[in-house]
Design brief:
The protein is an alpha+beta fold. The chain has one domain: Aminopeptidase. It contains seven helices and seven strands. A seven-stranded mixed beta sheet has the order 1-2-3-4-5-7-6, with helices on both faces. Bound molecules: coenzyme A (COA). Coenzyme A binds next to β4, α3 and α4.
Protein backbone atom coordinates (compact mmCIF):
# COMPACT_ATOMS: atom_id res chain seq x y z
CA UNK A 1 0.00 0.00 0.00
CA UNK A 2 1.35 3.45 -0.79
CA UNK A 3 2.23 6.08 1.79
CA UNK A 4 -0.89 7.95 2.93
CA UNK A 5 -0.97 11.67 3.74
CA UNK A 6 0.50 11.72 7.19
CA UNK A 7 1.70 14.56 9.37
CA UNK A 8 4.52 13.88 11.83
CA UNK A 9 5.13 16.30 14.67
CA UNK A 10 6.28 16.58 18.27
CA UNK A 11 3.56 15.52 20.71
CA UNK A 12 1.89 18.26 22.75
CA UNK A 13 0.73 17.61 26.34
CA UNK A 14 -2.76 16.92 25.05
CA UNK A 15 -1.43 14.55 22.38
CA UNK A 16 0.34 12.58 25.10
CA UNK A 17 -3.03 11.70 26.67
CA UNK A 18 -4.20 10.38 23.30
CA UNK A 19 -0.95 8.47 22.82
CA UNK A 20 -1.54 6.85 26.22
CA UNK A 21 -4.85 5.52 24.94
CA UNK A 22 -3.20 4.31 21.76
CA UNK A 23 -0.54 2.52 23.81
CA UNK A 24 -3.23 0.64 25.76
CA UNK A 25 -4.88 -0.29 22.49
CA UNK A 26 -1.67 -1.67 20.99
CA UNK A 27 0.29 -3.21 23.86
CA UNK A 28 -0.37 -5.69 26.67
CA UNK A 29 -0.33 -4.46 30.27
CA UNK A 30 3.36 -5.13 30.80
CA UNK A 31 4.48 -3.14 27.77
CA UNK A 32 1.81 -0.47 28.28
CA UNK A 33 3.31 0.24 31.69
CA UNK A 34 6.81 0.81 30.27
CA UNK A 35 5.58 2.59 27.15
CA UNK A 36 3.57 5.02 29.29
CA UNK A 37 6.66 5.68 31.40
CA UNK A 38 8.54 6.27 28.17
CA UNK A 39 6.22 9.20 27.43
CA UNK A 40 7.73 11.05 30.39
CA UNK A 41 11.36 10.10 29.82
CA UNK A 42 11.61 10.32 26.03
CA UNK A 43 10.85 12.69 23.19
CA UNK A 44 7.66 11.69 21.40
CA UNK A 45 6.74 12.15 17.77
CA UNK A 46 3.19 11.41 16.67
CA UNK A 47 1.75 10.58 13.26
CA UNK A 48 -1.61 12.11 12.40
CA UNK A 49 -3.91 11.24 9.53
CA UNK A 50 -7.04 13.35 8.99
CA UNK A 51 -6.73 14.78 12.50
CA UNK A 52 -6.43 11.37 14.15
CA UNK A 53 -3.30 10.27 15.99
CA UNK A 54 -2.47 6.91 14.47
CA UNK A 55 1.10 6.30 15.57
CA UNK A 56 3.95 7.37 17.79
CA UNK A 57 7.65 6.83 18.42
CA UNK A 58 9.67 7.53 21.55
CA UNK A 59 13.35 8.40 21.34
CA UNK A 60 16.17 10.20 23.09
CA UNK A 61 19.87 10.86 23.01
CA UNK A 62 21.66 8.94 25.77
CA UNK A 63 25.21 9.81 26.79
CA UNK A 64 27.20 6.66 27.52
CA UNK A 65 30.55 8.36 27.10
CA UNK A 66 29.58 8.27 23.46
CA UNK A 67 26.15 9.59 22.52
CA UNK A 68 23.65 7.13 21.15
CA UNK A 69 20.19 7.69 19.69
CA UNK A 70 17.83 5.35 21.49
CA UNK A 71 14.58 4.51 19.76
CA UNK A 72 12.28 3.09 22.41
CA UNK A 73 8.58 2.21 22.06
CA UNK A 74 6.72 2.79 18.82
CA UNK A 75 3.36 1.74 17.52
CA UNK A 76 0.86 2.32 14.74
CA UNK A 77 -2.90 1.80 15.07
CA UNK A 78 -3.77 -1.52 13.47
CA UNK A 79 -5.99 -0.13 10.69
CA UNK A 80 -3.18 2.19 9.57
CA UNK A 81 -0.34 -0.33 9.43
CA UNK A 82 1.46 -1.24 6.22
CA UNK A 83 1.27 2.31 4.82
CA UNK A 84 4.79 3.46 5.62
CA UNK A 85 3.86 5.32 8.82
CA UNK A 86 6.13 3.28 11.11
CA UNK A 87 9.09 3.73 8.80
CA UNK A 88 8.43 7.47 8.49
CA UNK A 89 8.30 7.82 12.29
CA UNK A 90 11.68 6.10 12.69
CA UNK A 91 13.27 8.16 9.91
CA UNK A 92 12.00 11.36 11.53
CA UNK A 93 13.24 10.29 14.98
CA UNK A 94 16.66 9.56 13.48
CA UNK A 95 16.55 12.96 11.78
CA UNK A 96 16.06 14.68 15.16
CA UNK A 97 19.15 12.95 16.60
CA UNK A 98 21.47 12.48 13.64
CA UNK A 99 23.71 15.48 14.26
CA UNK A 100 24.46 14.39 17.81
CA UNK A 101 24.87 10.63 17.98
CA UNK A 102 27.44 8.03 16.95
CA UNK A 103 24.80 5.38 16.40
CA UNK A 104 21.12 4.53 16.69
CA UNK A 105 19.86 1.67 18.86
CA UNK A 106 16.47 0.04 19.13
CA UNK A 107 15.43 -3.46 20.18
CA UNK A 108 12.71 -6.02 19.78
CA UNK A 109 11.61 -9.58 20.47
CA UNK A 110 13.06 -12.17 18.11
CA UNK A 111 9.60 -13.03 16.79
CA UNK A 112 8.49 -9.45 16.02
CA UNK A 113 8.87 -9.77 12.25
CA UNK A 114 7.39 -6.35 11.34
CA UNK A 115 9.89 -4.53 13.57
CA UNK A 116 12.83 -6.66 12.41
CA UNK A 117 11.99 -6.01 8.77
CA UNK A 118 11.28 -2.34 9.28
CA UNK A 119 14.64 -1.67 10.96
CA UNK A 120 16.58 -3.92 8.59
CA UNK A 121 15.10 -1.97 5.69
CA UNK A 122 16.58 1.19 7.25
CA UNK A 123 20.07 -0.31 7.48
CA UNK A 124 20.03 -1.62 11.07
CA UNK A 125 21.79 -4.87 12.00
CA UNK A 126 20.02 -7.34 14.25
CA UNK A 127 22.56 -8.32 16.90
CA UNK A 128 22.90 -9.61 20.45
CA UNK A 129 23.21 -7.15 23.33
CA UNK A 130 26.74 -8.48 23.82
CA UNK A 131 27.65 -7.48 20.25
CA UNK A 132 25.95 -4.09 20.70
CA UNK A 133 28.05 -3.55 23.82
CA UNK A 134 31.24 -4.45 21.91
CA UNK A 135 30.40 -2.05 19.07
CA UNK A 136 29.64 0.76 21.50
CA UNK A 137 32.88 0.12 23.38
CA UNK A 138 34.65 0.40 20.03
CA UNK A 139 32.99 3.79 19.55
CA UNK A 140 34.23 4.93 22.98
CA UNK A 141 31.33 4.11 25.31
CA UNK A 142 31.95 3.76 29.03
CA UNK A 143 30.14 0.53 29.80
CA UNK A 144 30.93 -2.46 31.99
CA UNK A 145 29.10 -5.09 29.99
CA UNK A 146 25.92 -5.68 27.98
CA UNK A 147 23.78 -5.66 31.16
CA UNK A 148 25.12 -2.23 32.03
CA UNK A 149 24.06 -1.09 28.55
CA UNK A 150 20.57 -2.56 28.92
CA UNK A 151 20.16 -1.08 32.38
CA UNK A 152 21.26 2.37 31.25
CA UNK A 153 18.70 2.50 28.45
CA UNK A 154 15.95 0.52 30.31
CA UNK A 155 15.72 -1.89 27.42
CA UNK A 156 15.40 -5.63 27.95
CA UNK A 157 14.18 -7.03 24.63
CA UNK A 158 15.72 -10.17 23.07
CA UNK A 159 17.80 -8.53 20.39
CA UNK A 160 19.36 -5.17 19.69
CA UNK A 161 18.99 -3.26 16.43
CA UNK A 162 21.96 -1.05 15.73
CA UNK A 163 23.02 1.32 12.98
CA UNK A 164 26.21 3.35 13.03
CA UNK A 165 25.56 6.98 12.16
CA UNK A 166 28.06 7.64 9.40
CA UNK A 167 27.29 11.33 9.49
CA UNK A 168 28.87 11.76 12.93
CA UNK A 169 31.52 9.09 12.43
CA UNK A 170 33.09 10.91 9.50
CA UNK A 171 33.22 14.27 11.28
C1 LIG B 1 5.97 -2.26 13.98
C2 LIG B 1 4.95 -1.26 13.50
C3 LIG B 1 5.13 0.04 14.27
C4 LIG B 1 5.17 -1.02 12.00
O1 LIG B 1 4.35 0.04 11.59
P1 LIG B 1 3.80 0.16 10.09
O2 LIG B 1 3.33 1.56 9.91
O3 LIG B 1 2.87 -0.92 9.79
O4 LIG B 1 5.16 -0.08 9.26
P2 LIG B 1 5.46 0.39 7.75
O5 LIG B 1 4.21 0.34 6.96
O6 LIG B 1 6.22 1.67 7.80
O7 LIG B 1 6.41 -0.76 7.26
C5 LIG B 1 7.78 -0.57 7.07
C6 LIG B 1 8.43 -1.91 6.81
O8 LIG B 1 8.29 -2.75 7.96
C7 LIG B 1 8.09 -4.10 7.53
N1 LIG B 1 6.75 -4.54 7.96
C8 LIG B 1 5.77 -3.77 8.46
N2 LIG B 1 4.69 -4.54 8.77
C9 LIG B 1 5.04 -5.82 8.48
C10 LIG B 1 4.39 -7.08 8.62
N3 LIG B 1 3.14 -7.17 9.12
N4 LIG B 1 5.04 -8.20 8.23
C11 LIG B 1 6.30 -8.11 7.75
N5 LIG B 1 6.97 -6.94 7.60
C12 LIG B 1 6.35 -5.82 7.96
C13 LIG B 1 8.24 -4.10 6.03
O9 LIG B 1 9.60 -4.31 5.72
C14 LIG B 1 7.82 -2.70 5.68
O10 LIG B 1 8.37 -2.26 4.46
P3 LIG B 1 7.64 -2.60 3.05
O11 LIG B 1 6.20 -2.21 3.21
O12 LIG B 1 8.38 -1.74 2.09
O13 LIG B 1 7.82 -4.06 2.86
C15 LIG B 1 3.50 -1.82 13.69
O14 LIG B 1 3.43 -3.11 13.11
C16 LIG B 1 3.05 -1.91 15.13
O15 LIG B 1 2.53 -0.94 15.70
N6 LIG B 1 3.23 -3.08 15.76
C17 LIG B 1 2.76 -3.31 17.14
C18 LIG B 1 3.60 -2.57 18.15
C19 LIG B 1 5.04 -3.01 18.15
O16 LIG B 1 5.35 -4.20 18.01
N7 LIG B 1 5.93 -2.03 18.33
C20 LIG B 1 7.35 -2.29 18.33
C21 LIG B 1 7.86 -2.60 19.66
S1 LIG B 1 8.06 -1.12 20.60
Amino acid sequence: MSLCKVEIYEASKRDLQLVKRLIREIFDRWHSYYAERGLASHNVLVARVDGLIVGFVQFKVVDLGVKIGHIYYMGVRRAYRGRGIGRTLVVRAEGCMKDHVACFIASTQENNVPVLRLFRSLGYSVISWRRAYEILKGLGAELEDEYDLMWKIYDYDDVALLKVNKRVRTL
